């Protein structure tokens, strides 16, 4: 699913996309006696199905009445996600790492799960809750995020592995790489997707601790989570997503300096080794391979949208030439077993097609619909009224499946948000020049709940008049989304106080 479906959407192969969708509708059965990774099933299967569902109309598929609030791919995503819910039934709310799709959690299942395996659900599960109206998915994802936040160390860091029953840290190495990476990624992307101030404030607090204890000369090392002492002075290739994530919060200068450090490693070997010893300037024993990972190219894409720095295109060119030269074989592109002599392994990871090639394509395709600057959009009719889609601002899950944030506002049973947006549009076009209005934030509201009252937003609620001119730009930069964290034209997200 990850490697076959989404690249077809990006590249526009409508007939092949339809064929894959037909196969999925005819033959997917999640009620099977097999153990599955909760993390991988979510990012690949649930995320892939949700993204395919939301992009199916643009891909040329004839959608059913009620789309995007209904559809076969959405129903399959919901079915797959429900198979994962038993993993979250722990005293802490943090999920087990593995679940049996037929029987639930096995009695002998280990309670030790990596941090990323706990904190990488909010993008897919919140999208599913908003589209289906069932809050259970977003609720369990939020509970897991808050459990990790609650159990951070006194100096503000989280470790690598934790016991989901006792909340005791089993591996206490703190960093931004393997075992932790997508937890931080989903705090930022969840905040953007849901307009959630709490998630963003969590990440910003982590960001301070990461800078204080793990950052050295624009490199990020591994440290002991309670003491902050260096435990591993290495760079992992999985950490290369970090400059892209920093660009999303507007810290472009820091992101570029770190990116250039990583790029020097690429130029040294023609790829990123899994581990790189920073003091020695060379690979780590038994970690010399390069499985064609996407993270550095992902960061290049985000940073290029923010800066238009040609250095980022040079990385893309180097990546294409390197992959073609040292990795291409008759039946695909092989993992590089050892970057020192470019020996190949007999395998090709699915993320090479699902992520690496996709990010390369988008880096060099500035006019792709994914990069839409909100100058065009589609209006669809849903059971709850008109809805704006495909206006840009897509949020990629950690397997590079794009989610349209606007879609989360299409299937709400409460109409008030729709009317608020329409009122803003009328005022914008001066149809009601004398109208004074208030705007209620809906960032943390889920079905059946009222919106939370952020501490710093008290002056903007309670019926007080607001400066409509100031907020029209941020709220209407994408016609369907009430951004508290504004999506700027160059691909950066800025907080109101930035």
Defining traits:
alpha+beta, three-stranded antiparallel β-sheet, 23 strands, disordered C terminus, glycosidase, metal-binding, hydrolase, endoplasmic reticulum
Description of the molecule:
- It is globular and about 60 Å long.
- The protein has helices at 5-11, 14-27, 38-55, 72-84, 115-119, 122-132, 136-150, 181-194, 197-213, 242-248, 252-269, 295-307, 310-326, 350-363, 416-428, 468-476, and strands at 35-37, 98-100, 112-114, 161-163, 169-171, 173-174, 215-216, 219-220, 222-224, 230-232, 234-236, 275-277, 282-283, 328-329, 332-333, 336-338, 343-344, 378-382, 385-389, 395-396, 402-403, 486-487, 493-494.
- It is an alpha+beta fold.
- The protein has a domain at 235-366.
- The strands form ten sheets. Strands 3-4-5 form a three-stranded antiparallel β-sheet. It has a three-stranded antiparallel β-sheet with strand order 6-9-10, with no helix packed on it.
- The longest helix is centred in the N-terminal third of the chain and has 18 residues, at 38-55.
- It starts with a helix and ends with a strand.
- Helix 8 runs antiparallel to helix 9, helix 10 runs parallel beside helix 12 (295-307) and helix 11 crosses helix 12.
- The model is unreliable at 7-11 and 432-498 (pLDDT under 50).
């Amino acid at each position: 699913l990850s490697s076959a479906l989404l690249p077809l959407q990006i590249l526009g192969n409508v007939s092949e996309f339809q064929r894959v969708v037909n196969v999925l509708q005819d033959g997917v059965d999640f009620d099977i006696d097999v153990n599955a990774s909760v993390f991988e099933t979510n990012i690949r299967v649930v995320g892939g199905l949700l993204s395919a569902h939301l992009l199916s109309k643009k891909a040329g598929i004839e959608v059913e009445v009620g789309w995007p609030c209904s559809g076969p791919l959405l129903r399959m995503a919901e079915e797959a996600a429900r198979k994962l819910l038993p993993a979250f039934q722990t005293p802490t709310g943090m999920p087990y790492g593995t679940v049996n799709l037929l029987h639930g959690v096995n009695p002998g299942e280990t309670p030790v799960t990596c941090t990323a395996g706990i904190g990488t659900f909010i993008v897919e599960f919140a999208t599913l809750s908003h589209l289906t109206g069932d809050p259970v998915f977003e609720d369990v994802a939020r509970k897991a995020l808050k459990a990790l936040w609650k159990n951070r160390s006194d100096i503000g860091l989280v470790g690598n592995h934790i016991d989901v029953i006792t909340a005791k840290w089993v591996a206490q190495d703190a960093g931004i790489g393997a075992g932790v990476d997508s937890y931080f990624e989903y705090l930022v992307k969840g905040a953007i997707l849901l307009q959630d101030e709490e998630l963003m404030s969590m990440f910003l607090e982590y960001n301070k601790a990461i800078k204080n204890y793990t950052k050295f000369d624009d490199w990020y090392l591994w440290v002991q989570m309670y003491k902050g002492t260096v435990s591993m002075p290495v760079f992992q290739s999985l950490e290369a997503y970090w400059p892209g994530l920093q660009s999303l919060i507007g810290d472009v200068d820091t992101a570029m300096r770190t990116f250039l450090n990583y790029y020097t490693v690429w130029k040294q070997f023609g790829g990123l080794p899994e581990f790189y010893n920073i003091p020695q300037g060379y690979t780590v024993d038994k970690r010399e391979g390069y499985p064609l990972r996407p993270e550095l190219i992902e960061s290049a894409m985000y940073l290029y949208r923010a800066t238009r720095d040609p250095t980022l295109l040079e990385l893309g060119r180097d990546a294409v030439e390197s992959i073609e030269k040292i990795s291409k074989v008759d039946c695909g592109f092989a993992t590089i077993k050892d970057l020192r002599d470019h020996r190949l392994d007999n395998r090709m990871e699915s993320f090479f097609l699902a992520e690496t090639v996709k990010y390369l394509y988008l880096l060099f395709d500035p006019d792709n619909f994914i990069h839409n600057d909100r100058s065009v959009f589609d209006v669809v009719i849903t059971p709850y009224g008109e809805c704006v889609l495909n206006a840009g601002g897509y949020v990629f899950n950690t397997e590079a499946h794009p989610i349209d944030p606007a879609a989360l506002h299409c299937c709400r049973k409460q109409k008030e948000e729709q009317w608020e947006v329409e009122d803003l549009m009328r005022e914008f076009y001066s149809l009601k020049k004398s109208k004074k209005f208030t705007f209620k934030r809906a960032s943390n509201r889920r079905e059946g709940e009222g919106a939370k009252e952020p501490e710093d937003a008290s002056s903007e609620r309670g019926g007080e008049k607001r400066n409509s001119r100031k907020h029209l730009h941020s709220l209407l930069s994408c016609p369907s989304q009430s951004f508290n964290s504004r999506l700027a034209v160059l691909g950066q997200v800025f907080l109101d106080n930035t």
